[in-house]
Amino acid sequence: MLVEDLMIKDVISVHENDTIESLIKTLIACKIGSVPVLDDQDKLAGFVTDGDILRAVSPKQQTIYDFYTMIAAIEVEVSRDKIKDLLNKKVKEIMKKKNLQTVYVNKDLDAVLKILSHHHFKKLPVIDSERHVVGMISRSNIIRYFGELAIGQK
């Protein structure tokens, strides 16, 4: 089985210069948790997940030196101002850029399984030779395929 046989072809993506507010609206409207990020030539530039957004908002871990500092560390909250500041930032500020895991359309399912299981990813962008995103393949696509095999539909 090839990647192109299982992948989702209608890919929802964002651009690296989109705001995080726009990204969040896209994730909510489409009921998804991650998207590929494209550059100005519509080539894959990164990948962003709902976890990346949460990490951008969460307070940085503090080193506790004494009892007074410990009290301050416990009382840290996410402020509305911090969230508003985040919403105005660009997607490229929080997206994963390095060591992106991708798969080509013509690869066998084994290649996808190795990447998904080794890195514990839920989905991968499927790219062509020029790094254009042509699809997405997810664990659920593969599980659905295995299920169809198991009940004899394929």
- How many β strands by DSSP? 6
Helical content band: 40-55%
**Strand order in the largest sheet:** 1-2-3
For the largest beta-sheet, the strand count, sense and barrel status come to: 3 strands, mixed
- How far the N terminus sits from the C terminus, by CA atoms, comes to 11 Å
Poorly predicted runs are none
Following the backbone from N to C, one meets helices and strands in this order, namely HEHEEHHHEHEEH
Overall structural class, as computed from helix and strand content, comes to alpha/beta
Q: What general form does the structure show?
A: elongated
Quick structural overview:
The protein has 154 residues and is α/β, with parallel strands linked by helices.
